[in-house]
Amino acid sequence: MTRAEKRERTYEELILAADKLFTGQGFHATSVDEIAFEAGYTKGAVYSNFESKEDLFFVVYERRADLAVAEIEQILRENGPTAGLELLASDATHRRGREDGWLAVYFEFWAHIVRNPSLRQRFARIHARVAEPMNAAIERIAEERDIVMPVEARSLNVAMIAMVSGLSLERLTQPDVVDVGLGARMVRLVLEDLGRGGVMHDPGDRKE
Question: Cys bridge to 41: 45, 148, 161, 179, which one at CB 3.0-4.6 A?
Answer without folding.
Answer: 45
